[in-house]
Amino acid sequence: MFVHGFAGSAQQYQSQAMRFVANGYPPERIRAYEHDGAGLDSTAFVSGLSQVIDGVLAEFKADKVFLVAHSRGTYVSSSYLRNASNAAKVAKYIAIDGSACVSNVPCIAPNQGMFPGQKHVEVCTSKESFAKQYEFLLGEKPQVVDVVRQRAPVEISGRAVNFPANTGRAGSTLKIFAIDAATGARTQADPIATFSIGADGHWGPTIVDPDALYEMELSADGGVVTHFYAQHFLRSSPFVRLLSGPPDSPSRMNTHTGDKHATLAVMRQREWLTSDVLEISTTSKSGDQPAVNAMTRGAGEALSIGIQIHDDTASPGQSSLDALPYFSTQAFQYGVDVFMPAADPPDGTINIRNLPRGDTNKPQVLHTPNWQSSKHHISLSFSDFPEG
Predict the structure, then answer these.
(1) N or C: which end of the chain has fewer CB within 10 A?
(2) How does 262-277 read in b/e, with b if 16+ C-beta sit within 10 Å?
(3) Which residues have CB under 8 Å from 183's CB, separation 6+?
(4) pLDDT tens per residue, the chain (388 residues)?
(5) Which CATH number among 3.40.50.1820, 3.40.50.2300, 1.10.510.10, 3.40.50.10860 corresponds to the domain 2-138?
(6) Which residues on neighbouring strands pair with residue 95, listed in sequence order?
(7) Assigned architecture for domain 155-382
(8) Of 70, 63, 69, 109, which Cα lies nearest the Cα of 90?
(9) Strands 277-284 and 348-355, sheet pairing
(10) How far does Cα 30 stand from its chain's mean position?
(11) Are 58 and 89 in contact, with CB atoms under 8 Å apart?
């Protein structure tokens, strides 16, 4: 059972869950408790965690769970474990970079000091952290630590949620399209799958090709359409999260939109640092923009996992690379002014190239149509591991 931290979700354990399964752990026995990522009172979520744990124990007719928590999730878990009857339901506990271990349950507390160079979120998602977690829980070293392509068909599912509350985007429609890897354009008019999103936000499952790329289009009546793009789905996962919000959400209200430029959110469950490279360029009939590195000093020092990128009102039509208002003051976020010409329908391509920690040997590249931001928003999700 994984419990995320502030502004987090189950997606922060997606790659670790894949590693567990690659080592033979049953996928149906890896679960997550998702709560309001903006809530400040960690004790308020203890009853929810208790209900989820009781539910899985009853489902599998088990006596105990392994509990893994990160950041603020460790404070939720510590509050839960201080109750002796709750602690009796936990076999082992892992507290990642947060509150200290609780004495009445076998526990380890991985932190940044144990993994030199790794930051707060990376300590949760790295392969080095996985190896330590696996050995503690199962009593042996894992045979696999890298996320490798599985042989069986890849099946994905997840939730479409309001960020950061993790409530479902009820009333939305999700359509999944196969796309051209070189442009991000759809390769056929009809989606490979369509889902109506209910109150719980759940969608799926659907089968995808691990060698292909996809667009996930989330739309609601009267709202901006959000287009999600991710790297290859190398393994099955129920932890795919599509984060967005209604028109009155703080993120939407603080995003400058218009007919002539695109807006972009770039996410990775591993801190962006100054050693990273995040190149963005646009090729379109509406105008070309040369590549600029959005990983400015400020962005790289903010220890963010989400970078908001759009044209700032202070310098319209230019990529000043200045910090955007609002986003650069939010926890785990940052904002950078980059101008990306756009049209409706799209008339070109936005090219995003990520060199994790500056490693030119394993670039991560995504391409998207230049969707007009007055009606559309683009969200990219890069893997927190290099695709080998």
Answers:
(1) C
(2) bbbbbbbbbbbbeebb
(3) 349, 367, 369
(4) 999 999 999 999 999 999 999 999 999 999 999 999 888 788 889 999 999 999 999 999 999 999 999 999 999 999 999 999 999 999 999 999 999 998 889 999 999 999 999 999 999 999 999 999 999 999 999 999 999 999 999 999 999 999 999 999 999 999 999 999 999 999 999 999 999 999 999 999 999 999 999 999 999 877 899 999 999 999 999 999 999 999 899 999 999 999 999 999 999 999 999 999 999 999 999 999 999 999 999 999 999 999 999 999 999 999 999 999 999 999 999 999 999 999 999 999 999 999 999 999 999 999 999 999 999 999 999 999 988 5
(5) 3.40.50.1820
(6) 69
(7) Sandwich (2.60)
(8) 63
(9) antiparallel
(10) 17
(11) no
The verdict on whether omega for the bond into residue 386 sits within 30 degrees of 0, i.e. cis, is: no
The closest of 270, 68, 234, 268 to 144, measured between CA atoms, is 234
3 state SS for the chain: CEECCCCCCHHHHHHHHHHHHHCCCCHHHCCEECCCCCCCCHHHHHHHHHHHHHHHHHHHCCCCEEEEEECHHHHHHHHHHCCHHHHCCEEEEEEECCCCCCCCCCEECCCHHHCCCCCCCHHHHCHHHHHHHHHHHHCCCCCCCCCCCCCCCEEEEEEEEECCCCEECCCCEEEEEEECCCCCCECCCCCCEEEECCCCCEEEEEEECCCCEEEEEEECCCCCEEEEEECCCCCCEEEEEEEECCCCCHHHHCCCCCCCECCEEEEECCCCCCCCEEEEEEEECCCCEEEEECCCHHHHHCCCCEEEEECCCCCCCCCCCCECCCHHHCCCEEEEECCCECECCCCEEEEEEEEHHHCCCCCEEEEEECECCCCEEEEEEECCCCCC
Residue with tokens 């890849």: 154
Beta-bridge partner residues of 229: 215, 380
Q: Where are the domains of the chain?
A: 2-138, 155-382
Q: State the Cα–Cα distance between residues 167 and 188, nearest whole angstrom.
A: 32
